[in-house]
Write a structure and sequence with these properties.
The structure holds two protein chains of two kinds.
Chain A (H helix, E strand, L loop, with lengths): L16 E2 L12 H19 L16 E4 L4 E4 L2 E3 L5 H21 L2 H6 L1 H17 L2 H9 L4 H26 L5 H10 L4 H21 L1 H7 L2 H8 L6 E4 L1 H4 L24 H5 L19 H13 L6 E4 L1 H8 L7 H5 L2 H23 L3 E7 L6 E2 L5 E11 L5 E8 L5 E4 L10 E6 L3 E11 L6 E10 L6 E9 L2
Antiparallel strand pairs in A: 2-3, 3-4, 5-6, 7-9, 8-9, 9-13, 10-12, 10-14, 11-13, 14-15
Helix pairs in contact in A: 2-16, 4-6, 4-8, 6-8
Chain B lengths: L7 E2 L4 E8 L2 E4 L3 E2 H20 L18 H25 L9 H18 L1 H4 L23 H10 L25 H14 L7 H13 L1 H4 L25 H10 L14 H13 L15
Antiparallel strand pairs in B: 1-2, 2-3
Helix pairs in contact in B: 2-10, 3-10, 5-10, 6-7, 6-9
The chains are: A alpha+beta, B mainly alpha.
The complex binds iron/sulfur cluster (2 copies).
């Protein structure tokens, strides 16, 4: 490695702005590349296929397995249905995603970036398109430098068409999460979908085309805030992609045999394969850097080279800073599992799991029937001609089942009181009234309660609700009856 | 400054900024060019905005912008759109006689909501924001009506008002000022008030009340009914209940008998269109005391 005291050189005036250096990553095979393939296949399949999964919820609710119904203000996810008042589940998921990112980063560095980040996944996909159409790295460079002949134009048009097709599929898939996919697909194709659907597809197609097709590593290095946070999340116990310079240096190629005859050489044969395969175009041998997304493709490349020259694999490898120091000193590094299990990661994991378990518990405990009552405050009470006092309440019953239900609303306490629905009549006032609530809806009922005048100016009582179907279920809510 | 400390960082080949903190030096990495172009693009966007939309402040107003957009114009457009959305409802309301409103629950619901808004604008000054009234201004939530409490009667009262000079169809109640005009003597007034308080169950019958009963039969029963049950045809209030427009204590009743009381309400016909009056009537009817006609349907969703 170079020590700061070696940093010398003459400053030369330079432009404040730099052109993007095109990156032509070489195809590589190996264990991490295969892992990346698998993750890419899984994530893309999830993204494109999920909206088309069906889930039978009965006649009264949509049968799309995952649906964000903004107009109806419902979020359906398989057997779970989230109402707006349960938005904390969504907040909980977001917190879990955040803590999960902390967990992954403190354990294995920017692995999220390297494998699962949408920017990486689509960039990777587009790079495969490049390879399919233009050929591998060298052919791509050659084509880049070639003059604009008919064949180059043809190749480029073909490539951008494929880019566009993928982008369109990507932007298109997004809107299917917000409406019934088959219906929307038909409407979209026939020009009958809402304007916002076309606008969303247009914007997402454009961003996919631009970000995955052209900006690529520029997003990871300049636009994304995560690498900056990540530098603070990493510590000496995090597994990151490391070039073991004490093993590799000095490099073989370029060394002048005459002057360095007796120098003990390192394992690195300076073949530059690790640089050639890097999707962000950096040289990991310069040490950890913001541009590295921890995708480990350089490990695959170098392992192959090491196999060819008959040296052990792992000149570039996942290693913690502590491991690196230990290995350098000739000790054996800790096994991977042990480096993953440490107080910090365990704490993150415990936090992550606790939120998840808490939400699961809450999901299991939540009721599908719920009553609340709000007293009309203006005026608080009304004196009727026979001397009785009338209060008005707005009673809300939440029917979270996907079928219409009939309910009996009753009074608990408040002796001598009767009530009627606004839709009923006083001459049929009673201690209970029945009401029907549409499936998956909030029923709002204005209820008049009359009670004889009394000494008490405030009488506490309760509204109860009981489902009148075989499944049953009940709830109650406290209320106050006020008199002059 | 530290220019002389600038140098090339060997591993990256990048110039340093020339300063150093705790052994850490900053690289002078050039910004990507697309960043610069994005920046220029935002400038162009901003300039275009200034051309297309009002932007430059001049002495009295701002430049107009070539698109002719104004916030006031947009507001007018939105109001017009809102009006257009309401038009079919208003048309249906105008075409439906008020007593048939309950047959169309959706329309009735719309009328009640519209009436709620119209009430806030026109009626709260006298009847209060919750329509609970005040001394001399009837509470519209209760079930006691001077002129009738079904939809049609309420609509009529709103349209023609009470005691509107030069308007033939207006409501007109007429109670003599028994004391001021010398029709009853002081002790007779005292007695009749005691009688009225007896029939409204506010006090037990006593000698005064018994004497007052005779005075009532002679002077008051013609309008208020033999038992004090009131008469909506002439707007004579029921005297047997617990609801008092001006107060049910002995002094207030005596004052009422002595000087009479004349409530006034504007006639809204002509000032408000018939559809709005219908909406107001539907709203007042829905407050809890409305008579006849099955009231508003407010089922879920
Ligand atoms: S791939 Fe390995 S051997 Fe080749 S240059 Fe990189 S570190 Fe050295
Ligand atoms: S240096 Fe290696 S791990 Fe980092 S981005 Fe490049 S190929 Fe991936």
């Amino acid at each position: 490695m170079v020590s700061p005291s070696d940093l010398t050189g003459v400053t030369k005036p330079k432009s404040l702005y730099a052109k993007r250096e095109p990156v032509f990553p070489k195809a590589v095979d190996g264990r991490f590349r295969r892992l990346k393939w698998a993750i890419m296949a899984i994530t893309l399949t999830i993204y494109y296929v999920t909206p088309w999964l069906r889930w039978d919820r009965g006649a009264w609710a949509p049968d799309q397995a995952v649906l964000i119904d903004l107009a109806g203000r419902r979020f359906y996810m398989f057997g779970i249905e989230i109402w707006p008042h349960e938005f904390y589940y969504v907040a909980g998921l977001l917190i879990m995603a955040g803590v999960g990112l902390f967990l992954v980063t403190s354990a294995v560095g920017r692995a999220w970036c390297g494998y699962a980040c949408p920017q990486t996944v689509w960039t990777d996909l587009f790079q495969h398109v490049d390879r399919l159409i233009d050929g591998d790295r060298n052919a791509q460079i050659r084509l880049q430098n070639a003059p604009w002949t008919a064949s180059k134009i043809a190749r480029r048009s073909l490539k951008y068409t494929v880019y566009l097709a993928i982008s369109l599929a990507t932007g298109g898939a997004w809107i299917f999460y917000f409406a019934d996919a088959p219906t929307l697909a038909r409407d979209f194709a026939t020009g009958n979908a809402a304007f916002v659907a076309y606008a969303t597809v247009a914007i997402l197609t454009a961003t996919t085309f631009l970000l995955a097709g052209f900006l690529r590593e520029q997003v990871c290095i300049y636009m994304c805030p995560w690498p900056r946070i990540q530098t603070a999340m990493l510590d000496e116990k995090s597994l990151i992609v490391t070039y073991k310079d004490w093993r590799g240096e000095p490099r073989k190629r370029g060394t002048k045999k005459a002057t360095l005859e007796d120098l003990k050489l390192g394992d690195c044969i300076d073949c530059n394969q690790c640089v050639a395969v890097c999707p962000t175009g950096i040289d990991i041998r310069n040490g950890p850097q913001v541009g590295c997304i921890t995708c480990a493709l350089c490990i695959d490349a170098c392992d192959k080279v090491m196999a060819q020259v008959g040296r052990p694999r792992g000149l570039i490898d996942y290693a913690t800073f502590e491991d690196a120091k230990a290995e350098k000193a000739g000790e054996t590094p800790k096994p991977v599992l042990k480096t993953l299990l440490r107080p910090r990661t365990i704490l993150y994991f415990a936090l992550w799991a606790a939120i998840g378990l808490g939400m699961l518990f809450a999901l299991g405990e939540r009721t599908r029937l719920d009553i609340s009552a709000q007293q009309q405050r203006n005026p608080v009470y009304v004196r009727l001609s026979d001397g009785t006092i009338r209060n008005a309440f707005t009673v809300k019953i939440r029917n979270m089942e996907t079928r219409p239900r009939r309910f009996a609303i009753g009074l608990e306490g408040l002796s001598g009181a009767t009530m009627w629905l606004e839709t009923g009549a006083r001459d049929r006032a009673d201690r209970t009234v029945t009401a029907e609530v549409a499936p998956d809806a909030l029923g709002k009922f204005r209820i008049f309660v009359i009670a004889p005048p009394g000494e008490e100016t405030r009488d506490e009582f309760a509204f109860t609700v009981r489902a009148l179907d075989p499944e049953g279920g009940s709830d109650s809510t406290k209320a106050v009856f006020e008199r002059p | 400054m530290a220019d002389d400390k600038k140098r090339i960082d060997v591993p990256t080949g990048t110039e340093t900024m020339g300063h150093e903190w705790d052994g850490i030096e900053e690289l002078n990495t050039p910004l990507p060019r697309w960043w610069l172009w994005s920046f220029y693009a935002t400038i162009v966007w901003g300039l275009a905005f200034m051309v297309f939309y009002p932007a430059w402040p001049m002495l009295s107003s701002a430049t107009k912008g070539t698109l002719g957009w104004t916030s006031r114009g947009q507001l007018e457009q939105e109001l017009a759109a809102e009006q257009a959305k309401k038009a079919p409802v208003l048309k249906a309301l105008a075409a439906t006689p008020i007593e048939q409103l309950p047959n169309n629950p959706a329309l009735l619901q719309a009328a009640v909501e519209g009436g709620r808004a119209a009430f806030r604008v026109n009626c709260v000054a006298c009847h209060g924001s919750g329509a609970a009234g005040a001394k001399g201004y009837p509470n519209l939530n209760d079930d006691d009506w001077l002129w009738g409490g079904d939809l049609k009667a309420i609509e009529y009262t709103i349209t023609h008002g009470t005691r509107q000079p030069d308007h033939d169809a207006t409501r007109f109640s007429q109670m003599p000022a028994f004391g001021r005009d010398g029709m009853l003597k002081g002790d007779e007034i005292h007695d009749v008030a005691a009688y009225v308080r007896t029939i409204s169950h506010q006090q037990k019958a006593d000698a005064a009340a018994r004497r007052g009963g005779a005075v009532f039969a002679q002077n008051c029963a013609s309008c208020h009914g033999a038992g004090g049950e009131g008469n909506r045809a002439v707007g004579a209030p029921r005297l047997t209940d617990a609801i008092w427009l001006y107060g049910g204590d002995a002094e207030t009743i005596q004052a009422t008998v002595t000087n009479s009381r004349f409530g006034v309400m504007p006639k809204w016909g002509g000032r408000l269109d018939p559809a709005t009056i219908k909406m107001l009537a539907a709203y007042v009817h829905s407050l809890g005391g409305g008579e006849g006609a099955a009231p508003v349907e407010t089922a879920a969703k």
